[in-house]
């Protein structure tokens, strides 16, 4: 069997991985042999996700912190250092959505969405990359973008600005860190069935629009993004750098 995608001996931190896409990324990487570090703010959900992964025989540990809190992120990485845990793969996945017409959008809501979806990747990415560079063994960073990294939609302005920013932040990281053997890429998920979209899935008009506008005529499932994350975490992608891979069932292709 090919060892191209084997992640044995690697440790991955996936932010926002107690549920949804982040959990699927963690499971995919764990199935490929990685040790995984599960993060979210909700301590109980983190513990639950860790238990679920361990029950399947995977090596998982929890690390709850808020990705927007620079001091909390520094403390979390210091805790990993103290435990001798070295992060080889970082997936900046934590994200939130806030829907409102721009003329009704409060600055605080704009800021919260930008901080969680964009600034967090800088805060967490910096801590991880510092250590990857110091160790001299390279590493992988995957930032989670969106269809809105490419196409704007109404009522999600800060999310769109953040996800457009993620695409270029990834390229900036790739430009700076390639010399240290670190590859940085973005995954752009399409419309995926997770908690973030519960209201949209339950809205018959939106649900019908998603199905009508996608060549697959359906929503994506979190597990359908696992393979792309494994690829971008593995040596199979060692010369793939600064790219964005959309996993959207072809939605952008027919836009
Ligand atoms: P979910 O809402 O299902 O899960 C989000 C996760 O992020 C939760 O575990 C949540 O836990 C965590 N999180 C949120 N804020 C923070 C924070 N400040 N610090 C740490 N963790 C946090 O979302 P999805 O799985 O759907 O989304 C995951 C990523 O994929 C996001 O970046 C999203 O923008 C992106 N994406 C999703 C799409 C979709 O259709 N689902 C489409 C395109 C992109 P807690 O609240 O406990 O902190």
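^ Assign residues to that structure.
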């Amino acid at each position: 069997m090919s060892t191209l995608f084997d992640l044995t001996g690697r440790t991955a931190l996936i932010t926002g991985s107690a549920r949804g896409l982040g959990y699927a990324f963690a499971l995919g990487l764990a199935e490929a042999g990685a040790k995984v570090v599960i993060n979210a703010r909700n301590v109980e959900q983190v513990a639950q996700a860790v238990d679920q992964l361990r029950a399947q025989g995977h090596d998982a540990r929890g690390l709850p912190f808020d990705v927007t809190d620079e001091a909390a992120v520094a403390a979390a990485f210091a805790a990993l250092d103290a435990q001798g845990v070295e992060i080889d793969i970082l997936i900046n996945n934590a994200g939130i959505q806030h829907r409102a017409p721009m003329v009704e959008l409060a600055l605080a809501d704009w800021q919260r969405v930008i901080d969680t979806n964009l600034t967090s990747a800088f805060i967490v990415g910096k801590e991880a990359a510092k250590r990857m560079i110091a160790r001299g063994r390279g590493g992988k960073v995957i930032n989670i973008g969106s269809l809105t990294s490419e196409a704007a939609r109404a009522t999600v302005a800060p999310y769109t600005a953040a996800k457009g920013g993620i695409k270029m932040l990834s390229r900036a990281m790739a430009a700076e860190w390639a010399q240290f053997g670190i590859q940085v890429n973005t995954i752009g998920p399409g419309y995926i069935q997770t908690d973030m979209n519960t209201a949209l899935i339950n809205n018959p008009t939106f649900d019908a629009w998603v199905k009508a506008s996608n060549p697959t005529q359906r929503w994506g499932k979190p597990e359908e993004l696992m393979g792309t994350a494994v690829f971008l975490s593995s040596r199979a992608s060692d010369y793939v750098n600064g790219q964005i891979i959309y996993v959207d069932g072809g939605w952008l292709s027919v836009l």
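Residues 11-195+222-250 form a domain with the Rossmann fold fold (CATH 3.40.50.720).
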